[in-house]
Amino acid sequence: MGHIHHFSAGWVSPLLAYAMASVGGALGLRCTVRALAVTGASRRNWLLTASIAIGSGIWTMHFIAMLGFGVSGTAIRYDIPFTVLSLLIAMAVTGAGIFTVGYGRIRSRSLLLGGLGTGLGVAAMHYLGMAALNLHGTVTYDIALVGLSVAIAVGAATAALWAALTVRGTSGAAVASLVMGLAVSSMHYTGMAAVGIELAPSRAPLSGATAMEFIFPLAVVLGSFLFLTSAFVALSPTAREKAASEAASTPLREAELPTG
Length: 260
Hints:
Elements: E1 4-5, H1 12-36, H2 40-65, E2 70-71, E3 76-78, H3 80-103, H4 107-131, E4 133-135, E5 137-141, H5 143-166, H6 169-193, E6 195-199, H7 211-235, H8 239-256
């Protein structure tokens, strides 16, 4: 059995991973709130942005945290197609949950189904990401801890969606994003606690890329996307602000009309 290191890079990787999960969660949840205030193509576009944001955030969190993962006695490589697939699955499954919330007629039911979909998206991304591991050995799992990790993801994702849709104001948005970041991080490290490695020593070269060759550059790109999109969303007016602006400008336009 190989000795597993989860924090070989110190506390930098888990703290940065949590920050990325929170940023992705904050952006996704705010886009979901924006979507519920509009209709038509605008709602769809906001929900798509939310799905990409949360999916990118949880993927980036996972692989930044994996920079601190190591196993004594073997090198680690990542299968590129599986790694990309885990990102696409994260966006797709999370998107199903977000769209359920965005278009659901019964708020309580759509919230539960949305939390289920979002939580399963987090879990699916994690275990597909783990399937991308190439090492000299076999990865095994403690089924009970796997089940617990999925339950944590679903429960905390549902709580985050509820907070985003119920608690108003900046403080409510901050709490919801921190809960979402906690959901992803707790699920990740619970899932990693379930991992065991049965080594099969070999000198054969491993296929795939190292974390620094492929995953870290992609994580930087996605992280930049999240921060820039967050700035755009923060600066763009809400539906209520647009309505207030139009109402305030109406008397000015009427005053400019000729009276004859």
